[in-house]
Design goal:
Blueprint (H helix, E strand, L loop, with lengths): L1 H41 L9 H34 L7 H25 L5 H6 L3 H19 L1 H12 L3 H30 L14 H22 L1
Helix pairs in contact: 1-2, 1-8, 2-3, 3-5, 5-7, 6-7, 7-8
């Protein structure tokens, strides 16, 4: 009995740090096919034909980096936001924005590697091509993404007032927040993808190529991430 209590207490103490990366690494696997497809659309190329097994294998390759990135982002964002709030426990839009931007800046090089993976590029190749302008658009993209994941609980609170306190409400809020965060950061993501492929942006409309597919993927990712965290915590 004492061992069981110790194990439970030990997991409770490390869960806030281990649950986010584990949940993120699992959540990316089923949606990674859409991430590959969105990169093809951003480059104006045909969507690669892949079997389900091939898609899962590619997702599993990306899982460790995504788990590390998103896990670190959410843990650090939470810590930074708490520091910015001081004694207040209620999140504010301004603190969420600022903490997400700080995390976005720190994530830039690693995110360049992940985005390169969606185009079949190696980590070394992506890092060699990493530049200041790539870092700037990644910061913009990740600020929107982290806000989307962080704002899910805030949106859920508002939606419960109209639709009731149910799991369906919570997961709908997670999907909406993730998808909207993806759409907000998509122009920056398209710029990154095209610059990594040495392609220019010829017209503004190109910036939204692949937007719907990526929003869908991030929406589902947000739901799976939320589910994973709830199970692990």
């Amino acid at each position: 009995m004492s061992l069981s209590i110790f194990t439970k207490d030990f997991w409770s103490s490390i869960a806030p740090y281990t649950a986010p990366p584990l949940a993120a690494s699992i959540a990316i696997i089923p949606v990674f096919g859409d991430m590959i497809a969105k990169s093809a659309e951003q480059l104006g190329k045909p969507i690669p034909s892949m079997t389900l097994l091939q898609t899962i294998k590619q997702g599993m390759k990306a899982a460790p980096s995504v788990g590390a990135i998103v896990g670190a982002q959410m843990v650090i964002q939470n810590k930074v936001e708490k520091a910015l709030l001081g004694g207040s426990k209620k999140p504010k839009l301004s603190s969420t924005l600022l903490s997400s931007a700080i995390v976005g800046i720190g994530s830039a090089p690693i995110l360049a590697v992940f985005n390169g993976q969606t185009m079949g590029r190696s980590a070394l190749e992506s890092l060699r091509k990493f530049s200041l302008k790539q870092g700037l658009v990644i910061t913009a993209q990740e600020t929107a993404f982290v806000i989307g994941l962080s704002a899910a609980d805030l949106l859920s609170e508002k939606m419960r007032e109209s639709f009731g306190d149910t799991k369906a409400t919570d997961y709908t809020a997670a999907y909406i927040a993730g998808a909207l965060g993806s759409l907000a950061g998509h122009p920056a993501n398209t710029a990154l993808t095209r610059w990594q492929a040495n392609l220019a942006i010829d017209r503004p409309s190109q910036l939204m190529w692949g937007a719907a597919r990526k929003a869908r993927a991030v929406g589902y990712f947000a739901c799976l991430y939320k589910l994973g965290k709830e199970i692990l915590e």
